[in-house]
Write a structure and sequence with these properties.
The protein starts with a helix and ends with a helix. The protein has a two-stranded antiparallel ribbon with strand order 1-2. The protein is 68% helix and 5% strand. A hairpin with a 7-residue loop joins strand 1 and strand 2. The longest helix has 25 residues. The protein is built from 9 helices and 2 strands, in the order H-H-H-H-H-H-E-E-H-H-H. With 208 residues, the protein is mostly helical.
Amino acid sequence: MNKAVELVKLWGVYEEQNPDGTIEDFCRHQLSVAIKEEKQIAPEWQLVPDINGQLVILIRKIGKFHIMYSNKALEGTGLDQIEEFGILVIIFNKRNPIKSEVIYDNLLELSSGTNMLIRLKKRGLITEYADDEDKRVKRLKLTPKGEETLKKAKGLILKVAGMMVDILTEDDKQLCIQMLNPINTRFSAIFQKQKNKPFDDVYRENMV
């Protein structure tokens, strides 16, 4: 069958079942169909996650790969871990933010984030000063050494990112970003508010 004719027929079936569906929705649907056809059935005795579990496990594993390779790339730069790089980025981008802003924007616990800031200050990468309007508030900025370290580390971290997604096309990357961004946007807005709540409360709030 001519591929164009086959595509039109597939679209016709999809549109009949999903009258409000867009072309983008149709493309995603076809990708999901192809994936389902390739899916292998596991033995009944195995503990197999459902589709939600499969997705978050995949994201978590990729995140761990990224942390491991990034920390390896940062060896010798003056930074010990990717979280320290994230701190320097936030300070640089937000132009002298307060401590809590830097810590929470990097999804760090207050205690561990504070200790990380102390270590970066001891290495001469950041400095702090009192806010002009409220002397109780401390603001952070990069030292010249910190800016040079950030510049060097940035190139290495970009190399890690490029290495990890090299097997994807540019269209694949854009599609992944488009699909996952709503999750990031949703939880970025509520994560800090829900950190200390019981899980049952968190679940109810998120599943409304």
